[in-house]
Amino acid sequence: MRTALYTLAQDFRRDRGGVFALWVGVMAIPLLLLAGAGLDLMRAVNLRAQLQAAVDSAALAGATAYTSSSASSTATTVAQNYMVGAIAKLTANSGVTYTATPSTTTSGSATLYAMTVTATSVIPTTLMKMVTSSTPVKVTATAQNSTSILTFTLSNFASNAADADSIYYYIVPSSGGVPSSSVLNLLFSNTASTTGKTATVVVTPGQQIGLALKNVTGGIIPYVLNGYFGFQGSTHWFYSHLMPPSSLAYSWVAQNCSLQTIVSGGSGTIKSGSCFTSLPNYATINCSQARGKTITYYWNDMGGLIDDKDYNDAVLTISCSGNAGSTQSSVVLTK
Question: CB-hemisphere CA count at 13 Å for 301?
Fold first, then answer.
């Protein structure tokens, strides 16, 4: 009897072992799927992180180069070239496609230039192949110029000026040439056509800002002819980014007889009666370089029967918002 019962128990145990093995086999399938999904998810997350870092950096590089409307194609090329280099270092994938799209918005009087870079890829699955052959990955980033406040403060126009003088600001053309009249913005004039002695504008830190002096011979007190053969009522333009600034007004004058600058707190004094072989420091200004500084601009309009080169015909200061030496970036990621 005992032997029969023992044999029966053994048979029962063998039957249960088969059932357990069956259940293990059944459960192994979803467990393998879960393990495969986890592995593929980790690979997709890793690729996404690498792609996101690539588009972030490409957008920042493109926006840094995008400082004017004429720089749109150059900025796009910069962003695309960055992506080419970054893609070569990515985790194995089934190919990456990307776009770099420039755009603009406005903030006050400033045009803000932005670069959006979007990238898509797929990563092949491993154990998940029975469900899907690949996992899609898509990322995007937009970088845009940050802004600074540029403050212009008029010190004076020469009280004995016979000429009519006006001061304008402009964004220096990327070509380095003469700016068009449409980009000139009037700040101050000694003909009382402007009011106030302070003007503020919103600019992007990377924008190079120049000053223009418009001089009209005898515009206040007629005197027929100036020392550079400018006749009564004739108009002469001086641009701070050109060397010399008077090159458009008087093409035969090779030296800078028009502009001197002094940085507040720095050394140096105005030299009357002199001309110079180069432009002064900060003949043009951008707030990435001049943040926290105040620069005084001294203009000589080259007027009068004999040019006295006294550099007091128009005097103004320019300052950029922010602290000197600040590490604030000129471009920021907005998304």
Answer: 32
Q: Is residue 327 part of a domain?
A: no
Residue 139 sits at φ, ψ, to 5 deg, of: -140, 160
Q: Do 58 and 183 belong together in one domain?
A: no
pLDDT in tens, 192-212: 766 568 999 888 777 899 999
Question: Do residue 67 and residue 195 come from a single domain?
Answer: no
pLDDT band at 7 (very low <50, low <70, confident <90, very high): low
Q: The tokens 């796009």 sit on which residue?
A: 76
- What's the whole-model pTM score? 0.66
Residue-range definition of the domain harbouring residue 67: 2-145
Query: 213 and 290 share a domain?
Result: yes
Residue-by-residue DSSP string for 180-231: PGGG-EEEEETTS-S--SEEEEEE-TT--EEEEEEEETTSSS--SB-TTSPB
Task: Give me the amino acid identity at 145.
Answer: N
Distance CA 19, CA 13 (A): 10
Does residue 271 fall inside a structural domain?
yes
